[in-house]
């Protein structure tokens, strides 16, 4: 079986409490031909020091630090610019990946030539590591296409994308779509191939934010713009469920 390089995209911001565990689990993946592109977005805690420590221990970890706080979209774009893999795997620095996550996602993409991306099921955990729930993301492309919502039909932060099956500019994050930057990219991805979710739980998503419902409702115009562009530019066919879905559910971060 071919052993392509997987680039793990890891934006980091004030993640010191969880970052060491995140890095250790990535570096101990069953699939070893990977690089981790980690850029610290001018954290106020010890995140960058932790990155420096682990980069000295494993050359697969490539690190940098923004000169000021740029935000998640620009940091993701910077990470992507420095990536070399034909497979792009995303990761949140406060979350955790199971040992076989990357290996199983890669195998799925190798076995399914029409697929451009694949996610996994996740365990939602609170700050005390207690399980809150287990995701039930749809496996098939059609359901994902009709409801391409981050946190509802998939979790973008555990997605793996086959870079050679999409145009170069698809993996680009726009600052004006916050906090729905992932949904915007998922819609673009769906134009070029199938998106699926594995049935296995291979990712732990930590639910740490408070008061997110109010914040997301304030940003609902951003989601409306994404829907409008998807319909008019990409001729995307949403289900009614996605158009009336509570914005609170689109990002459990």
Could you give me the name of the CATH homologous superfamily? Spore Coat Polysaccharide Biosynthesis Protein SpsA, Chain A
Q: Count helical runs.
A: 9
Taking all Cα atoms into account, the compactness measure Rg is: 17 Å
What is the second-level CATH architecture?
Answer: Alpha-Beta Complex
Largest sheet composition:
9 strands, mixed
Structural class: alpha/beta
Quote the CATH topology. Spore Coat Polysaccharide Biosynthesis Protein SpsA, Chain A
- CATH class placement: Alpha Beta
N→C terminal distance: 35 Å
Could you explain the architecture of this structure?
This protein has 253 residues and is of the alpha/beta class. The chain has one domain (6-250): Spore Coat Polysaccharide Biosynthesis Protein SpsA, Chain A. Helices cover 34% and strands 22% of the residues. The protein contains nine helices and nine strands. The protein has helices at residues 16-27, 47-57, 72-81, 101-111, 141-146, 181-190, 212-218, 220-233, 240-244, and strands spanning 6-12, 34-40, 61-65, 87-90, 96-97, 115-125, 131-134, 160-162, 194-206. Strands 1, 2, 3, 4, 5, 6, 7, 8 and 9 form a nine-stranded mixed beta sheet that branches. Helix 2 (47-57) links the parallel strand 2 (34-40) and strand 3. Helix 1 packs parallel to helix 2 (47-57). It is globular, with a radius of gyration of 17 Å. It starts with 5 loop residues before the first strand and ends in a 9-residue tail after the last helix. The model is unreliable at 211-218 and 246-253 (pLDDT under 50).
